[in-house]
Design a protein that fits this description.
The complex is a heterodimer. By secondary structure, chain A is an alpha/beta fold. Chain A has one domain: TIM Barrel (Alpha-Beta Barrel). In chain A, strands 1-2-3-4-5-6-7-8 form an eight-stranded parallel beta sheet, sandwiched between helices. Chain B folds into two domains: 116 residues, no CATH class; 114 residues. In chain B, helix 1 packs antiparallel against helix 4 and helix 3 runs antiparallel to helix 4. Chain B is built from 16 helices and no strands. Classes of the chains: A alpha/beta, B mainly alpha. Chains A and B meet through helix 3 and helix 13 of A and helix 3, helix 6, helix 9 and helix 15 of B. The structure holds zinc ion (ZN). Zinc ion (ZN) binds next to loops of chain A.
Chain lengths: 293, 279
C-alpha cells in the first residue's frame, strides 16, 4: 500500500523515522508550521523555521524518497504574544506564494481567547487572498467549544468549507464538522486521545468521504507510523484496499490539491534526484561538458 | 564570457506558451515600481515555477536550465536595472528569502546577474550547504567559481564535492584551475579512502596533477587498467590534460587494457599513443 501523511512535524524526527516511514509505504508528507515546544521570542526564529520547512527539510525528506510539502501559518499558542505575532503576520504572505506550501495552517484556537481569534481570522482572510486551503488545529482542552467556534468563524469569514480541514477531531466533535461540510482530520496517537480501533469505529460509522488520518507526530510522545498502522487495522477489520487508499492516500492529496500545488500524479511520479541528473550527463555517457573558453 | 551574450528574455519567450508569457510580461512590466514595493519582485519570483513551468531549455549553453530558472533570472536582471538601492543586497535578499529551488536558480544564474564577482560571498555561502543539489548547482556547469573563487575556496569546493560523492568532471575550468595545493589535498583524500578500503570517486583523478604529487602516479597506473570503465576513462582524461605541462609523462603511461571495448576510452588511448609516437 502507498500512504500519504497529511500532518507530521518532521523537523523534530530522526532519519530512522524517515527510513521506517518510507519502508512502510509513506511516499509524501505535509508538515504544518507549528510551535516548537517552547515559545519563540523573535521573528527571526520564525523566519528561519519557515525557511527550513521550504528548504532543508524538503531536501532531507527527498533523500529518503519522500515528497515533503508544508503549510504556513502562525500557530494559536504563539498567537498570544501579540507584538511578535504581528511581526510574524507581516512575513507570512511571502511564504504563502511559495511552491510546496499547500495550505495555510495550522491555525485555530488553543486557549480560545480574543487574541487567538484575531490572528485566526486574519489568516483565514489570507487563505482567501492566496486561494489556499486551510488546516485548522482544534484545542485539546475544551475541544467541543473550540470546534464549535472554529466552524462558526469559518462561516463568518465566508470560506468555502470544501477548502477547510478541521483536525484532531474525535467521536464527540466529528458530527458537527461533517454537518458544516468541512474535511475531517483525525490524529492517531500512541497513548491518550485517538487510537487505531477508535479510528476504525469512526470510519465504520461515518464512511470514508472527506476523511483524513494523521499521526501529528512531533517532539512529544508520538508515532510517525500511525498512518500505515491505521491502514493495516482497516484491512483487518474488513475495509478494502480501495478504501484504505482513499482515506490514507487520495483524500489528503485531493484536499491539498485545491492549492494547485500538489496532485496525485505528482506524488506518485518517481522522485528525481537532481544530483543524479548531473551524473547522467557526465562526460562518460557521451555529452561533453560546456567548458568556458 | 560566452554566456553573458545570451538574451534570456528571448530564450524564455521561445519556451513559453501564450498564457504563460502574458503572466510573465505583466510581472516584468510591474517591476518598474519595485522601489515602492519589493513584493513586486518577491511574489513573481516565488510563483515562477508554477506559472512558467519547469521545462528543459534546449539552448546549447544552458544545459541544466529550465523555464523557471530563466524566468527568475530575467526578473532579477530587470529588478536590478530599476532598483535604486544596492544591487548586491537586492540579490542577497532574494536568495535568503527563496525556497530551495529559488536559491538554486540564483546560484545557477550568478554570471547573468553579476559580471564582476560582487556576489562572491553569496557563492561561497552556497558552498557551505549540506544539500547535494545546491552543491551541484554552485560547483557544476557554472562558470562563476573558476572565474572568481580564490584558490583556497576553489579547492575546498572541489574537495567537498568529492566528499559528497559528486562527479567533479562537471566543474567548469577545473583543468585550468588545478594547483599544487588541490593536488595534495585530493591525493591525501585518495589515500585515506584506500586505507579505509572504500571505493574511490571515479572523477577524483581530475583534481590531481602528477607534477605536484609524483607518488600518485603509481595509483593512476593501477586504475588505468581498472575493471571499472569510468576509472579508466577519467584516469586517461586526467593524464591527457596534464601532458601539455608535463610532456615527460608520456613515456611513463602504459595504456594497454586487453579488452577495452568502450569507444570513448579507446579514442583516448589512441590519442595518447599518437602523442607518444610524436604525432
Ligand atoms: Zn500539528
Amino acid at each position: 500500500m502507498k500512504y500519504f501523511e497529511p500532518h507530521i512535524h518532521m523537523v523534530s524526527r530522526t532519519t530512522d523515522d524517515y527510513q521506517n516511514m518510507a519502508a512502510a509505504g509513506v511516499i509524501g508528507v505535509v508538515e504544518p508550521a507549528f510551535w516548537q515546544g517552547q515559545p519563540r521570542t523573535n521573528v527571526g526564529t520564525f523566519i528561519d523555521y519557515f525557511d527550513m520547512l521550504i528548504g532543508w527539510e524538503r531536501f532531507r525528506a527527498s533523500q529518503f524518497g519522500i515528497r515533503h510539502y508544508c503549510t504556513m501559518g502562525l500557530n494559536p499558542k504563539e498567537a498570544n504574544y501579540k507584538e511578535l505575532a504581528e511581526e510574524v503576520m507581516k512575513v507570512l504572505p511571502r511564504y504563502m506564494a511559495k511552491d510546496g506550501v499547500v495550505a495555510v495552517g495550522e491555525i485555530g484556537y488553543d486557549d480560545i481567547n480574543p487574541t487567538e481569534e484575531r490572528f485566526f481570522a486574519e489568516q483565514l482572510e489570507m487563505a482567501k487572498e492566496f486561494e489556499l486551503p486551510v488546516l485548522v488545529h482544534t484545542p485539546h482542552r475544551d475541544k467541543v467549544e473550540g470546534t464549535k467556534r472554529t466552524l462558526a468563524l469559518v462561516k463568518e469569514i465566508g470560506i468555502d468549507p470544501e477548502m477547510v480541514v478541521v483536525d484532531h477531531l474525535n467521536e464527540i466533535t466529528i458530527e458537527m464538522a461533517i454537518e458544516a461540510g468541512v474535511w475531517t482530520g483525525h490524529s492517531v496517537y500512541p497513548e491518550t486521545k485517538m487510537s487505531e480501533s477508535r479510528m476504525i469505529d469512526i470510519l465504520k460509522r461515518y464512511g470514508t468521504n472527506k476523511m483524513m488520518v494523521n499521526s501529528a507526530a512531533d517532539w512529544g510522545v508520538s508515532d510517525p507510523l500511525k498512518v500505515p498502522k491505521v491502514g493495516t487495522a482497516m484491512l483487518q477489520s474488513g475495509f478494502t484496499e480501495q478504501d484504505v487508499e482513499k482515506v490514507l492516500f487520495a483524500n489528503p492529496i485531493n484536499f491539498f490539491a485545491q492549492s494547485g500545488r500538489i496532485s496525485i500524479e505528482e506524488v506518485t511520479r518517481p522522485l528525481i534526484d537532481q544530483t543524479k541528473l548531473y551524473e547522467e550527463n557526465s562526460a562518460l555517457r557521451g555529452q561533453t561538458p560546456v567548458v568556458e573558453k | 564570457m560566452t554566456q553573458m551574450t545570451i538574451n534570456l528574455l528571448d530564450v524564455l519567450k521561445q519556451h513559453s506558451a501564450d498564457g504563460e508569457w502574458q503572466w510573465f510580461d505583466k510581472k516584468l512590466t510591474a517591476l518598474a515600481n519595485i522601489n515602492a514595493d519589493l513584493n513586486l519582485l518577491d511574489i513573481p519570483l516565488a510563483m515562477a515555477r508554477r506559472k512558467m513551468g519547469h521545462i528543459s531549455i534546449t539552448h546549447p549553453e544552458l544545459s541544466h536550465w529550465y523555464t523557471d530558472d530563466v524566468a527568475r533570472i530575467v526578473l532579477l536582471q530587470k529588478a536590478t536595472e530599476t532598483y535604486l538601492g544596492d544591487e548586491v543586497s537586492l540579490i542577497m535578499r532574494a536568495y535568503q528569502q527563496g525556497d530551495e529551488h529559488e536559491k538554486e536558480t540564483i546560484i545557477r544564474g550568478l554570471c547573468f546577474v553579476d559580471q564582476q564577482g560582487d556576489l562572491i560571498e553569496l557563492a561561497l555561502d552556497a558552498c557551505r550547504t549540506n544539500m547535494s543539489t545546491m552543491m551541484s548547482t554552485i560547483a557544476f556547469n557554472n562558470p562563476f567559481p573558476a572565474r572568481y573563487f580564490p584558490e583556497h575556496e576553489f579547492n575546498q569546493m572541489v574537495l567537498k564535492s568529492l566528499f559528497m560523492g559528486l562527479d567533479i568532471d562537471r566543474v567548469q575550468g577545473l583543468a585550468e584551475r588545478t594547483n599544487e595545493s588541490l593536488s595534495r589535498m585530493t591525493y591525501d583524500f585518495l589515500r585515506e579512502r584506500i586505507a579505509a578500503s572504500r571505493p574511490l570517486p571515479k572523477t577524483i583523478w581530475l583534481a590531481i596533477r602528477i607534477v605536484d604529487v609524483d607518488d600518485a602516479f603509481e595509483i593512476f597506473q593501477t586504475y588505468l587498467i581498472s575493471d571499472d570503465e569510468a576509472h579508466r576513462h577519467f584516469v586517461l582524461t586526467a593524464l591527457l590534460q596534464q601532458l601539455a605541462t608535463n610532456p615527460s609523462l608520456i613515456e611513463r603511461i602504459e595504456t594497454h587494457h586487453p579488452q577495452e571495448s568502450n569507444a570513448q576510452i579507446l579514442a583516448l588511448i589512441n590519442k595518447t599513443k599518437q602523442l607518444s609516437n610524436g604525432e
